[in-house]
Amino acid sequence: MAFFKITIEYLYVIAAPLMFLGYLPQIITLLKNRDGAKSTSLLTWFMWVLALSINTAYAAWVNGDRLFLLATGSSLLGTVLVFSIAAYKRWLSVKISEPI
User: Fold this and answer.
1) Domains of the chain
2) CB 40 within 8 A of CB 85
3) What is the pTM of this model?
4) Measured over all CA atoms, what is the biggest interatomic distance in the chain, rounded to whole angstroms?
């Protein structure tokens, strides 16, 4: 049982960077995007930012588990980046299409 627990703890430590790496394909796609990120749902990504902000706050001020904080914080960083890039691209596309 101790081996199982230690294995889970080590896997948990590497989960945070892996979770962040999971956002990289979406981030790269958005950075290359030229149509104002119209196919990206800002509402969905905002809801994930909001939920992960709550999870990260819980990890920081209630739970006290540093590894949980690292895991939720890395996911929060990924979702904030995706949301921010998509919102910026959307803002640029609206700004460019406005008549002068």
Assistant:
1) 2-97 (1.20.1280)
2) no
3) 0.86
4) 69
